[in-house]
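retry 2 of 3: previous attempt timed out while embedding 6-diazenyl-5-OXO-L-norleucine. Reduced batch size to 1 and resubmitted. Inputs unchanged:
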Amino acid sequence: MSSVAAFQDLTDNLPDWVEAYRAYAAEGRVATYIPELAHAPQQALGITLHHKSGAVISAGDAGMPFTLQSISKVFTLLLALMDRGEKAVFEKVGMEPTGDVFNSMLKLELVQPGKPFNPLINAGAIVISSLIRGDSPEHKAERIVRFIRELAGDEGPSINEHVYRSEAETANRNRSLAYFLKDNKVLDEEVEPTLDVYFRQCAIEVTCAQVARMGLVLANDGADPFTGRELIPKRYVRIAKSFMVTCGMYNASGEFAIQVGIPAKSGVAGGILALVPGELGIGIIGPALNDKGNSTAGVHLLRLLSERYDWSMF
Ligand code: DON
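retry 2 succeeded.
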């Protein structure tokens, strides 16, 4: 199906599909371990698709703001690669999926020197946050926000202070990971300032339209789809997309590759950033999560769309 015909078909059907797929939220639960996230509406489901032609389609609760959470890890990885280069980044994190939950400590003790397996699990993302250049945690976070705004083509994304504080006050698991990494000499910076950057990046608030636009830049190999200007070197986008396929949906990444087959990254607020290479970017919000921490209705909706439009890369 040509993309023009697909967009007409989407325009005709997307609102109905979103309404029908809200029912899947009943299979999941809104995250509560970050107290501020517990207020999210269980039944919400929204999506925006942004095609390289400029066409944008939204449905459902696409206008509902949500925090990036783990989706931010893709963008801090990109910024760290741009700040430090590939060699320095991969001295600190590996390139392999873990098969474990996103905040697991398990594998840090199984290998020496306890280097996180990849940059998209919490341990890896915390190390990546320590590599972002800046004079202070605030300055580093500000650089991350500016990068997100540039890719979103929108000055809207900002840190949600309530979510930031809520996580900072309760993050015993992430603190444990960071102290463990520090003890193993994988984390060179101080623990608390590093975690401060990490909590701020996770609390950047966005909408589906902003996430779809960010996805479109990745789908376009790092170039602004409308001006052609290089925002991210293509090589680094390729690295990020590879991690999205192998680790983006955590220990459900294999199943997602089979059922949907496109690069994607989820966050615990219920967001998903996905993209069809060379074609379009997608932003989804559905706060009810499945047992792997991915938006349950969001994953079902992506599967429907991928099957209907034959999006799988494989
Ligand atoms: O560090 C955390 O636990 C959260 N700020 C982010 C985790 C997350 O989004 C996992 N995604 N499904």
